[in-house]
Write a structure and sequence with these properties.
204 residues, Trna Endonuclease, Chain: A, domain 1, six-stranded mixed sheet, 8 strands, 61% helix, rod-shaped
Length: 204
């Protein structure tokens, strides 16, 4: 006796089998698509790695160039600093000649020669470009001077701070001056606030 399958059951089995085949086909299509994506990514990675190597090599060259530039800048700064020192030492010589006559004519101060040296401020030595003792109206006065090629307000403020530290330890009237080739107008206003005389090299 041959077995027979109920038509409804047969139709249901066929639908299930067809559905599974469709799912397998979708999964196969997805797998092929994923494989293509992976292959493209792998190819792109090779190119990216090459680009990164080139970038790393370029970065090393840039870093080397910057290091050389920094070394050159340091050498330039040192040379400029030495040049500035030489200019200011030369300017000190001018100040030693010009300032005494200027102080006598404009402030009635009679004085000896300027010295460069260190003064004590609470146990800390402070270097002064111009130091001299003189007399004004019969009273002793100490002259303290700073020499700069150019004077801006910031230089005046800095020197004023130095004078404030030294005054309590000098025991005499102090006359403060700054001597330069060039003086910024704003520096003159700042100097008046701190009672510092600004003298340009061309003044007499």
């Amino acid at each position: 006796m041959s077995a027979t399958i109920d038509p409804e059951l047969r139709r249901a089995v066929i639908e299930i089998v067809d559905e599974r085949f469709r799912e397998l086909e979708v999964r196969r299509s997805d797998f092929i698509g994923l494989k293509e994506v992976v292959e493209r990514l792998a190819s792109a990675q090779v190119g990216t790695e090459g680009a990164l190597k080139e970038l790393a090599a370029a970065q090393k060259e840039i870093e080397k160039a910057l290091a050389e530039l920094a070394a050159a800048q340091t050498r330039t700064d040192q040379q400029v600093g030495r040049l500035g020192d030489n200019i200011e030492f030369g300017l000190e010589d001018i100040a030693r000649v010009v300032a005494p006559g200027y102080l006598l004519r404009h402030h009635g101060i009679k004085m000896g020669e300027f010295d460069r040296g260190y003064l004590n401020a609470n146990g800390h030595p402070v270097e002064i470009d111009l130091y001299a003792e003189g007399r004004r109206n019969g009273k002793k006065v100490i002259i303290l001077g700073e020499v700069k090629s150019r004077i801006h307000p910031r230089e005046v403020k800095k020197f004023a701070g130095v004078i404030d530290k030294l005054k309590p330890h000098l025991g005499s009237s102090v006359f403060s001056l700054m001597f330069a080739y060039w003086i910024h107008p704003a520096a003159s206003l700042e100097a008046k606030k701190h009672h510092i005389e600004l003298i340009a090299s061309y003044q007499r």
